[in-house]
Amino acid sequence: MKILLAGYNIDYDIIRELKEKCAFGQDITPETISAAYARISRSPKPVDALRRDSRTEVEKARKSNRNIVFEMGHSSVAEHAVFNIDIIGVSRLIVEEIEKFRLCSYTEKSQRYVLFDRDFVVPEEIIQAGLTDLYTATIQLQNDFYHRLYEQLRPHVFEKNRELAENPGNKSMLEGWAKEDARYSIALATETQLGMTVNARNLELMLRRLSALPLAEAHLLSNKLYTATKDIAPSLIRYTRSTDYDLLTRKNLRGFCEKFDEGKKKRPLQSVHLVQATENADKQSAAALLFASSGMSYDLCFQEAGRMNPSEAKALFKTLFKHIQSYDAVLRELENVDMLFELTMSASCFAQLKRHRIATLISQDYSPSLGVTLPPAVRAIGRQKEFMAMIKKTNSAYEIIRHKSPAAAPYVLTNAHRRRVLMKLNARELYHLARLRTDRHAQWDIRNLSERMLKQARNIMPLTLMMACGKDGFDARRKIFFPKA
Prior knowledge:
Helix content: 40-55%
Radius of gyration: 26 Å
Order of helices and strands: HHHHEHEHHHHEHHHEHHHEHEHHEHHH
CATH architecture of the domain at 84-254: 2-Layer Sandwich
Number of strands: 7
CATH topology of the domain at 84-254: Gyrase A, domain 2
Distance between the termini: 40 Å
Number of helices: 21
Low-confidence stretches: none
Shape: globular
Mean pLDDT: 91
Structural class: alpha+beta
Strand content: 5-15%
């Protein structure tokens, strides 16, 4: 066995400085890694030799990439080229579009920990519609209330948590709790920043999808991302323009759906509704466990799972979970059972839920018709009337903007405003969600949502979700099923 480090990401300023000091004569590009790895399947040479060849013949490597990725269609080769990208001065609204891409990594400036100070994006659509004054006044109204609310929430949080407040080391955490409730009053237009790690294949797709959105900010972001990377890996980032499929499909679907009168089909609002789940989920999970650990066909495993009495089935799952710890991922067999939830949540809650990118998340637009989420702490300090008065003015501005520039209207909505989300996930992913989001350290909004999801799912598949809980509840739950452990 031989393991060689082929490369790793370093700060681009260092790369640029090295090039300037050393007067390096050839391009420093991740394309050579992609080209070398692409040749592995058809060359007898060792990989390190293939990499050496690519580095000495960059143009040949680029030609190879173009042929393999675009002519032959082996797009996965582009995944070997990776970029670290700073994204600065974008709106919270457009971040939701960026973070739809599952196979990228993101770290975002958090409104839970950082106090924002009147920084917001004014979209080009607002300027063109002549609504800048209304828009700016509404955002400033929200921001002024946000800062007043934080100053009022801060002493409330410290008073409510006196024991924690006695330790100076908890000051930042307690202030963060005040910030995370105050943020419900600021807009999706709020300016933020993030660090993104993305491979060339996903970057190309991101450029195309962003350029298809009906927002000038998305188009500008697509152009700037392309400008920042095009000279580094020109052979891997090629098709950046939106296709008719990207441009027209969503628009046409919206047109088709206009004929349905939502007003005639309204139902009571449910924040968490388990729409459907795998039939006989525990039996399906049991069959998958038997299949993975035996030599039987799946049909026979399913039959054997069906023949188990309750105590035998419970024994199988206790065997599965006997040695599990709170940090362990459950076995992949549990991916064989699925759940589909319809969720109604605040923008603040969605900002956290969207991090679970392996699940399938399909979201509707934010809508004032769904109401808003009022943080309990705001009610506790008696500021709910002021909060709702701010929301009323926001909704009025939203309606004016929506009639002139529908695509830009969501910018003015707050983190308290809601949207509907369809979330499909398997039991293994629900374990991951529960570990993080039903834990007492989780933010209250997503914790409430996740606890209700888990409760409804456990009613359907109690054995499969036997050990699903937050990290803080793991030991207590373990004692229920393994009292002697």
